[in-house]
Specification:
Homotetramer. InterPro entries: Beta-lactam/transpept-like, Glutaminase. It is built from 13 helices and 11 strands. It is of the alpha+beta class. Strands 3-2-10-9-8 form a 5-stranded antiparallel beta sheet. Strands 1-11 form a two-stranded antiparallel ribbon. The chain has a two-stranded antiparallel ribbon with strand order 4-5. The two termini are 25 Å apart. The protein binds glutamine. Glutamine binds next to loops.
Length: 323
Amino acid sequence: NTEITQEWLQSYVDDWVKFYKKQTRDGEVASYIPELNKANPNHLGISIVGNNGVTIKSGDVDIPFTIQSISKVFCFIIACMERGVSYVLDRVDVEPTGEAFNSIMHLEMRKLKKPFNPFVNAGAITVSSMLNGKTSDEKLEPLFILLEKMLGYRPALNINVYESERDTSIRNRAIGYYLLELDYLESDMNITLETYFKQCSIEITVDDLATIGRVFANDGIDPNSGVEIIPRKIVRLAKALMLTCGMYDASGKFAAYVGIPAKSGVSGGIIAVAPPRVRDEELPFIDGCGIGVYGPSLDDKGNSIAGIKLLRHIATKWDLSVF
Ligand code: GLN
């Protein structure tokens, strides 16, 4: 019966980061965006920001990385805030595809007559086309403002990643043209794609993801100030989509084995959200938390190979599942 203190939790997390760091060898860093391939495959870091103000950080926590697909959650939220939930959901569905994130197949099947969900590239590009503004910078300004509200600083674009992605974006352009043909885009295709590449290239750290995750865990309220930053209805919808579609075509397994809303990106970042629960007496120091993970070595689905294992371990041992 170990007494659970912050020190105990810290050394527990340190031990398991060390353990799972070895497993970074089993994956590979993304190479289809050349700039991402420069990441160190051995990096693994985690930040956990608990509701009771406790922060636990371990491993490679100071390495900045681009948010990539994690931006799909934030842009979906902005689109819902700007246009209203029903406007957005009339144009993008909420069904998992079971296909890779950059799949075009579900569009061609035309079963739903719209992209399956906002967290595959086709749905995310459609969402980016809905954002207000004439230029990509105008479209993304509300996203930067939202991030700044949560983080206390304005994150910047990693220009090298942005240019690398823009210059090698054959598949995403193919998706863009196909969306254009189907008449799904709400604004100019090139501006929409530029918006999408920029949103993916915003640079943050695991601490930032954990801080944002904690706002999600509290249904959109910043627990430090008590101020509502994201409307509850929208953040809840985003969390449902993270749980069902957040980890690409490994979302089912993640829900079954980890059991918390999360979203990954090909740079190796993961944001995860453990809402506070009634029965958290075992972990009084945590009581709901946001978690940020970074591990650029990826599995065959494009998720951080060691990051998922680390999250699974911690969520299981700390009983974080929302079920
Ligand atoms: N920028 C990446 C792409 O569109 C994002 C994909 C991802 O993180 N899975 O290819």
